Structure formats: C-alpha cells, structure tokens
Automatic annotation (TrEMBL), chain A:
Keyword Transferase: no
Protein name, as recorded: His-Xaa-Ser system radical SAM maturase HxsB
Keyword set includes Nucleotide-binding: no
Keywords linked to the UniProt accession: Iron, Iron-sulfur, Metal-binding, S-adenosyl-L-methionine
Cofactor: [4Fe-4S] cluster
Pfam families: Radical_SAM (PF04055)
GO molecular function: iron-sulfur cluster binding; metal ion binding; oxidoreductase activity
Domain (Radical SAM core): residue spans on this chain: 97-328
Lineage: Bacteria, Pseudomonadati, Pseudomonadota, Gammaproteobacteria, Lysobacterales
UniProtKB/TrEMBL annotation, chain B:
InterPro entries: HxsD (IPR023974)
Matching NCBIfam families: chp_LLNDYxLRE
Protein name per its UniProtKB record: His-Xaa-Ser system protein HxsD
Length: 499, 102
C-alpha cells in the first residue's frame, strides 16, 4: 500500500479570515503581535501576515495551522465551526454574567495622614460627622444582597476605616448574619494604614476571616516623606501593624501597594528590597492618579507616564533578579496583564474589563449614603463633580443602573467600540475606563493618542511581551508563573488601596 | 518646524484609512485632512519642539498601509465578528424584570 502525496491531504483548501487585529512590535517592526477577538495571539512576520490576508501562502504552510489553532483563520469552511471561538470569547467576558462582585464601603473619611498625593477627601481624625451612620450601614447591607453575584468581595475603606472600628465590626457582623440565609461566598478586605491596629481589633478580623490591604511605599525615609504624620513615624506604625496582623491572621493576611511618587522614581531597588526585607511576596507598583490632593500637588509629586514606564522597566529587571536569587516576588499588575496574555480566563480587575467595570463590576457606597460606580467617581464627587453619582443607598440598584450617570458610562464603556481602541491588537486583553478619561481629559470617550491610560496599558503590554520574548528561559518561567497565579473570574485582585 | 504635507492617492487609500492613520498622529501634531480631486492631503504641524520628526513621512506611510490592511480585514470579517459578539452576549440580555440588570 502506498500513501498518497502530501498535497492530497492539504490540497488547495481555501480559508477565511476570522476577526483579527495586529500591532507591529516596537522592538522589531518587521514582526507583529496578531490577536484574535477572544485574545488568543501569536507573533509573526508582518510580511507573512500580509501574504495570509492576500491569500498567496501555500495551503500547507505551517503558519496557517498556527493561525487556525488560535482562531485567526478558519480552514475547511464548509466543515469548520466557530463554536470554540465563541466559547473562548464568552470565557474572556465571563465577568458580565454575574453583576458587580466588588462592593466598596467607605466607613469614614477620617484619616491621620496628610499625604500630598492622597486620592480622596480625607478629614481630620476628630471629624466624626464624616463617619458612616448605622442607618446607612444597615441599608448598604440590604442593597448588597440585592445584586445577583454569588461571589462578593466586600472592601471596607476610608479615610482610615480603623478609626471607625465600631462600624466596621457592625458591618461584618450584619453581613455574615444576613448571609446565613443568602449563602453567598463572601470575602472581606479592609484597606487600612494599619496604624494603631489593636490586638482586640485583630481578634475581630480573625473571626470574620478579613484580609488586609495596606500601603508600603518603600524604606522608612521614602514612606514617611510620602505619608506624613505629625509624629513622623508612619513607616514604623505600618510595620508594627503588619506584624501584629500577621502574628494572628497568618503570614499571607496582609498585602501591600506602593504608590509611586516622583521621589520613588529615583530608587526602585530600595523599594523592592524593602518588600523583600518585610517578607512580602507580592508588590504592586501603582502610578499616581489624577484625583483629590494628587491633582493639587501634581507639579511636586507627579511625572509623565513615560517616566513611570522607564521606572517600571528598571523595577521589573530587579524583581526578576530577586526571583532568580530564589526569593519569590511577583509584581501585581504585571501578573494581571500576563494572565490576560497567557490564559483564556477572565478576571474582575476593573481596568481590564470591557464593557467597563464601573458600575458593572464594582459599586461604591460612600459614608453619607451616596452610591458611585467606582472609587474614582467618588473622588470626582469629593472634588465637586457629581457627574458619575448613581444615586442614594435608599434607592434600588435598578434605579442606579438606569441613571443618566450609568448611561453616560456605558456610552463610552466598550473598548472595542472606542476610537483608537477598536483596531488595537491589545483590546481583547484590555479595558475601557471612561471615568478616568473624563477625569484626565474631560470626556468619557477620551482621545487615545494623548491618553495616559492608553499609554500606560500599551506600554505595559509591550514591555511584558518584549521581556517574555527576549528574556532568558528563567525569565519566562517567572513571568509565566505570575500569569498562572493571577486570580481568575474573581474580583480579589481588585481591592483598592489604603487611604 | 513648519507643517508637513503628505499626499495619498484616493484610488488606493480610502478616506477612512487616511483619517484613521491621521488620528494616530493627533497627539503629537495638529492635523488636517482634505480631499482634492483624486488625492487626500494630510497636513501635520508639530504641537511642540520635542516631537520626534525622524522618518516621519516613512512612519506615516507605513501606518497608512497597515490601516489599509486593517480595512481589508474589517471588510472580510465584520459580519462574522458582529454575529459572534451577538451570540456570545445574548444571555447577558435580561430575560425579565425580576431584578437588577447589569
């Protein structure tokens, strides 16, 4: 018996293009990142992509097999099905089916810090009129269970929520009590400086299995400069709080975020080594936001996104070398973007959702009973702009979702339909942030060529992809580990920062 | 640096392609697009003295050709793209008025 020639099995099978986008690689413009509508992708010669589109490749060219496997083309038109691509797309957008899972409750605006870059409208520690009342808190709990999501992350923040611990305790207790008949999966997070955290408070947090999110901006001098208290002991107080919490709640009970100020740009090594010294295995390098006090002090603390990306590039090298030394340390935002690149799953991070996560993935209940679709919307309101206020906690979620504010968000909330995003090869992995664009550019749709959000997202995707492609095998192993460890289809990565 | 002028044959480049390409440069440049008989005329004036002008015409023309490829892809796949999105998100449309409809 003799086999027929290879051409008998490949023939001149026609193929059709499936929806795809491409971007020339900044580090090698003769090649392109080519992505499917569901975010599957490959790197290929740009000239080859042209030949695929112009149908001048041989039918048995191996690149067609690669492209078919990634749903960039479909061969055997009569027999092929688009069901796998449809499933992949639905998996990527799975967050849409649940409704908001992240619920941020602002228990007080009081704070003992006077941070120059504070995003919120902090109030003095004695100003108890900026505390959430019991009546508002009880109504928030009722609203919480009106949403359909089975999994809820309840984040208590401020100001400094521990300054109003009575309300924190009351909310935890009431939510758990109510959940006896609701049977939701609930995760509690408190965003706090951890200053003045007491053993009694830690015992309460243990009862409710609360995770803590704090801010650690780096070594003592940098942290104290960024987060001043009259006593100049902010760093020492945060470390004491971390240790107290870890002693009772466990070593993984506290996560920390680093806000990057102009001063931070000078020394990524010191920041990263501080995290290692304090036994953290995750660091989140977060640029400044254009809200609250940060806007007023931008000339002193601010910098361009290009400067941030240059800092981030250096920091990533240092973090990779720390991992190569045997100490596991991941960068939080890189993990999220890498999980977008290397896994087919969705997750709840608001910046990476399209349609936007504002109001669809997260809801914020302010101390005074006002409801917002995101913390950024609350910050804008604190600055006097209530464009994105959804309503009051006494109203129903249905009323909030049909509010003019929500309609305005949705009009600009689908990245795939935005100018500059619609053809971007990263859009299946990225998101829309209409409130950020409104805050920075005065327009929820925004102008992508001058958008800091877009520049940051593109810059980060480019950097991580470049590092992944050009790095050593050891680099790739570390980056892929981060991708696989990142949370999926949960909002657990979506907690905000301590005040 | 004054205004840079680029001309595109309207038989090869559609208005959509020329406008989409120009949009990409609208962060660094004041831009205009005009249609003159069989040609699109693009004018770019740098917004500041720090704008990178190296190989500007070459970069712009390469980007225009890429936009032309994207147009070709959109024409060929637009229908199936719309059908897939509709099918995927159908279940996100509320079936009744029983509760919140995110």
């Amino acid at each position: 018996m003799k086999f027929r020639g290879r051409e008998a099995f490949t023939g001149s099978r026609p193929y059709r293009l499936l929806p795809l986008r491409f971007r020339r690689l900044p580090w090698d413009p003769s090649r392109a990142f080519v992505s499917s509508m569901s975010g599957d992708w490959l790197l290929m010669e740009h000239a080859t992509l042209e030949r695929v589109i112009d149908r001048v490749l041989a039918a048995d060219d191996p690149v067609l097999t690669d492209m078919e496997a990634r749903h960039l083309i479909a061969r055997d038109i009569d027999r092929s099905t688009l069901a796998p691509l449809l499933s992949q797309y639905k998996a990527r957008k799975a967050y849409l089916s649940q409704g908001p899972a992240l619920h941020i409750i602002v228990v007080s605006l009081r704070c003992h810090h006077t941070c120059s870059y504070c995003q919120v409208s902090r109030k003095p520690t004695g100003a108890s009129s900026f505390d959430m009342s019991e009546e508002v808190a009880n109504t928030v709990v009722e609203r919480l269970f009106e949403w359909p999501s089975h999994t809820l992350t309840v984040e208590l923040q401020g100001g400094e929520p521990l300054l109003h611990f009575e309300r924190v305790h009351g909310l935890l207790s009431r939510i758990i009590e109510r959940n006896q008949r609701e049977h939701r999966e609930i995760r509690f997070v408190i965003a706090s400086t951890l200053h003045d955290l007491t053993d009694e408070q830690v015992q309460v947090l243990k009862t409710y299995n609360v995770q803590l999110s704090t801010s650690l901006d780096g070594p003592e001098a940098l942290h104290n400069a960024n987060r001043p208290r009259p006593e100049r002991d902010s760093h020492a107080r945060t470390l004491a709080g971390i240790e107290r919490a870890r002693a009772t709640l466990g070593p993984g009970s506290v996560s920390a975020l680093t806000t990057i100020t102009r001063r931070s740009l000078e020394d990524p090594l010191a920041i990263i080594h501080e995290y290692r010294r304090r036994d953290f295995h995750s660091i989140s390098l977060r640029p400044l936001s254009p809200y609250g006090f940060a806007r007023k002090t931008v000339a002193r603390t601010g910098y361009s996104i290009d400067e941030f990306l240059a800092f981030y590039r250096k920091a990533l090298e240092i973090i990779l070398s720390v991992n190569h030394d045997g100490y596991e340390l991941e960068e939080g935002y890189a993990s999220l973007l890498l999980s977008q690149l290397h896994t087919p799953f969705s997750h709840g991070y608001v910046d990476l959702r399209s349609p936007t996560g504002a109001g669809l993935g997260a809801v914020v209940y302010d101390y005074d009973g006002q409801v917002y679709p995101s913390d950024e919307a609350r910050m804008l309101a604190a600055m006097g702009d209530t464009s994105f206020a959804l309503g009051r906690v006494e109203e129903s979620p249905r009323t909030w979702l049909s509010s003019p504010a929500m309609r305005r968000i949705l009009d600009a909330g689908v990245a795939e339909a935005l100018p500059g995003c619609s053809d971007c090869a990263y859009v299946p992995l990225c998101g829309a942030d209409p409130i950020d664009h409104y805050a920075r550019q005065g327009d929820p749709v925004g102008h992508r060529p001058t958008s800091d959000f877009c520049r940051k997202q593109m810059g980060m995707f480019d950097l991580l992809l470049e590092r992944w492609e050009l790095g050593s095998d050891a680099d790739r192993r570390v980056l892929e580990q981060w991708a696989l460890k990142a949370p999926r289809s949960t909002p657990s990565d979506d907690v905000s920062e301590a005040g | 640096m004054g205004t840079i002028e680029l001309r595109f044959d309207a038989a090869i480049f559609s208005a959509d392609v020329v406008v989409r390409t120009t949009y990409r440069y609208s962060g660094d440049f004041y831009t205009s697009v005009e249609h003159e008989a069989t040609t699109f005329v693009v004018r770019l004036a740098p917004r500041s003295s720090t704008v990178n002008l190296a190989l500007l015409e070459e970069r712009f023309r390469t980007d225009a050709l890429d936009e032309r490829m994207r147009e070709q892809i959109r024409e060929e796949t637009g229908e199936v793209h719309a059908a897939l999105v509709t099918a995927a998100l159908r279940e996100a449309v509320p079936a009744d008025d029983a509760g919140p409809t995110p």
